[in-house]
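Deliverable D4.2, example record:
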Amino acid sequence: MQEQVLRVLRGPAVWGAALVAVGGVVPVASADGGPEADLAYHGSAAMASGLVDVRLTPRNLGPSAVPDATVRLRWSEPLAYRQELPGGCARSGLRVVLCRVGELAADGLGERVELGVRLRGAPSEVLMEVDTVWSGGVVDRNRANDRQRLLVLDTGDEYYF
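Output generated by the structure prediction step:
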C-alpha cells in the first residue's frame, strides 16, 4: 500500500518542480526590488457523499503582471487514492492538489479552475484551504485575499469564498 502511495505522489513532485522553472519580467517593483502583485481567489465548493466540486477564479489586482502562478488546495480529510484531475492540476500529498493558474495580467482575471476530488470515506464536513504556492517571483504583500478557508458540509449546497 505504501509503495502505491509513493508511486502516486512521485509524478506530482516532478511536475511541481517543473513549474518553478518559469520566469518573466514585470514593470513595477516592490520596496525590496522585486515586482509586486496582489493575487486573490474567489469561488465555491460543494460536497455530496465524499465528492467535493470546486470552482475558483484567480484575479490579479496588480500593479504588476504575474508570469505564471500555482494555487494549492488543501483538505482536512485525506483524498481517495485515485483521482481524475483536470489538466494543469496534480496531486501533491495525501490532502493536497496543486493547479496551475497561468499568467495573470495586472488588474485581470485568470481562467476559472474547476475540479472534483473524492475524499476517503464520506465525511460529514471538510475544511478546504486555498492559497498561492508559487507566483513566478512576484511579491504579494496582501496575503489576506489569496488565502481562503472554507468549511464545506456534506449537504450538496454550494459554499462561497
